[in-house]
Amino acid sequence: MFAISSKELEKSYGGELVLNKINLEVDTGQFVTLLGPSGCGKSTLLHIIAGLEDQDSGQLDCQGQPITGPAQNRVMMMQEAALFPWLNVEKNVAFGLKERNIDKEKRLELAHQELKKVGLADVKKAYPHQLSGGMQQRVALARSMVLKPDILLMDEPFSALDEQTRFKLQQELVKLWQNTDMTIIFVTHSIREALLISERVLVMASNPGQIKAEYELDLPYPRKPNQQKIVNLEAEILEDLLSEDDQKQKALIEKVAG
Ligand SMILES: Nc1ncnc2c1ncn2[C@@H]1O[C@H](COP(=O)(O)OP(=O)(O)OP(=O)(O)O)[C@@H](O)[C@H]1O
Questions:
Q1: Which of 93, 101, 183, 187 allows an S-S link to 42, with CB 3.0 to 4.6 Å?
Q2: Which atom of ligand 1 is nearest the CA belonging to 14?
Q3: 4-73+155-257 sits in which CATH class?
Q4: Which atom of ligand 1 is least distant from the CA of 45?
């Protein structure tokens, strides 16, 4: 049974087809990246998988059951940490456990354990504004992980971070994932990021959004950006996206010029 599967999934906004015939099969425990240019529908697809939006047509299942809305076993992490500024770090992490009828002491204990994994147990009494952007995203990661999701959906979670912090968080995320059975679907428009972290890269194209290529990455972790295979694949995917972009631009010029 697949963690997530879709058949001929489609979505339009205002008459514009945004997702076209998305066929997806994600194995349990896999780390999959949706890679593509701005506007190709990556976030829309992730939101539909999260159950935050409906598709117009096509089948979408999680663990063999149709997705009809949000569920506790699917957790979404966004680009902005969006922590509660009035709660300290441990309470931010523990917050989502309230819904699960876990008592306060246990909630804080679980939050502590998760904060330890992201190296932030020592600042659990601090408030979000006291932390750097990278630390805030680590807290957001702990807040997602404490819920022990089967499926973690990540929408460009590191794209607002500086390069070295981003690299560190990529490595940490991979380590955290390796210690679980969690399935991750990660959205990015960084080719390098996709190649450094995931087992499978699905390259999307726009107008309408579709999956146009797929790469299986049978490379051990931790990966380095200067590994020959990564360098070669990065060049290949970039080339592909550039030629796609040229065609789109040509079509747009023809349309605008009449
Ligand atoms: N709620 C909405 N209403 C109308 N149009 C929308 C809505 N959400 C997304 N779109 C449109 O759908 C298309 C795909 O958007 P989406 O955000 O999924 O792309 P993306 O690949 O995630 O882009 P980015 O990398 O810039 O976040 C875009 O043209 C966008 O304007």
A1: 187
A2: 4
A3: alpha beta
A4: 18
